Amino acid sequence: MDLAAAARRRLPPDAAAYYETTAVYPPARDNERAWAAWRFVPRFGIDVSEVSTASELLGRAVAAPILLAPCAYTGYAHPDGEWAVARAAARTGTPYVVSSASTQAPASVPPAAATPCWFQLYVPREQDEVERVVREAEDAGFEALVVTMDAPIGSLRRIGYVPDAAEHDPFEHARPAGSPLNPAVTWDTIGQLAELTTLPVLVKGVLHADDAKLAVERGARGVIVSNHGSRQIDGVIPTALVLEDITRAVADRALVLVDGGIRSGRDVLRALCLGAHGALVGRPYLWALAVAGEDGVDLLMRRYHLELENVLALTGCRRIADATRSLVRWQT
Question: Which residue is catalytic, options 168, 208, 228, 277?
């Protein structure tokens, strides 16, 4: 099934456009193509009668090193929104990173989940608001704070925004002075957040090894290599092309995760071979939610887990630790 096409048939046009939009039109597929260019170099003659995808993330045992990425306004796809995603995540043992721009109140999601939930944060402009949001995340039971770094202002997108004709300037969000986001976030902000909370802090939106080092130096426990699903910058580099530089820089002292174009368990293995500790799935679970609700997300994640188990065996790996750099080679 073409999950995205099936979802488009069910979603209102504005919602489908919002989910799919990137900073270019037609929507870029560079992330997906870049992962596919990493070709497998399998090993054989290895007993793979028993294969395990089990892993650990921030001290938590997980069924597989696969997470659900933060996606805004999940309720556009299904009335239960984040609650449905959280329940499916619990059924499959999948950690879920809940967006601060969620349809349901973020604090209501962990009680519905019974699965590790992390909270994605766009840093507010006012310090008292920062402290309030962080305390709410702690009290709600979130297990980590994921700070999005790559959205200091809104981006100009070809589709996915429907400007209000009554607005004087419908593109004000794309200028620093008019952005509802916080253009003043710096690496010092990460240090302040790390001191403010007992939760592990991760930085999402890292594309440069030097930025990964700065994040870790400021107290981040991990980084998420991400280009915001190509939604922010036209011509941004795919995550599959920078992941290895970043893992070489910090993977020995911090958790390194990656998103952007992860469309199968095979892509997850590619990321692991390049040094990542895990990968996040974004748009595909929105499509699955739109098509079949909670059950759709459940089935999708079971598929990812099965694909990962299958490709581990087919490349001569019995466990996640066997996924090494020698198993992939770049070929355009």
Answer: 228
